[in-house]
Write a structure and sequence with these properties.
two-stranded antiparallel sheet
Length: 143
């Protein structure tokens, strides 16, 4: 809601109906893409299960659907969801790991990577992670 209010107001703070209509159109497009993505996910999982393609190929298919939908969002001028990009990449790594039949188990490596990520996130100064933007008044806003 806050994003809509920020996006849909003129510089003087008054509502801009044209900007509101554009915002809603993008929001609706994102919802439609989400529905298509979930539909493709279920179609793929059911098909892979019936065809007995194996875990590795199944995971790669889920990665393809997940990452493909984020690519469609990007080319449709809808915000890409970073969480789903990471999830898609995780499915891709898991699928490749399974297809190549790597002897080293993936779970411990994944757990170590998560731990290092959390350590980095906890140690890295928050001021470096925050983005600042300039207001028309010239003052920086921190998120």
């Amino acid at each position: 809601m806050h994003d809509m209010m920020k996006h849909c107001c003129r510089a003087d703070g008054k509502p801009d109906l044209k900007k509101m209509a554009e915002f809603m159109q993008h929001h609706d497009r994102g919802s439609n893409l989400d529905a298509v993505g979930w539909a493709l996910f279920f179609v793929w999982v059911g098909t892979a299960w019936l065809a007995n393609v194996g875990l590795g190929v199944g995971l790669l298919g889920v990665a393809l659907v997940t990452l493909g939908m984020q690519a469609v969002r990007r080319f449709s001028a809808v915000k890409v969801e970073g969480f789903w990009v990471v999830v898609g990449l995780a499915f891709a790594v898991g699928g490749i790991w399974e297809v190549l039949d790597v002897e080293t188990p993936l779970a411990p490596i994944f757990i170590i990577a998560v731990g290092l990520g959390l350590l980095f996130w906890g140690v890295w100064p928050k001021s470096k992670r925050k983005h600042s933007r300039e207001h028309p008044s010239g003052q920086a806003e921190h998120r």
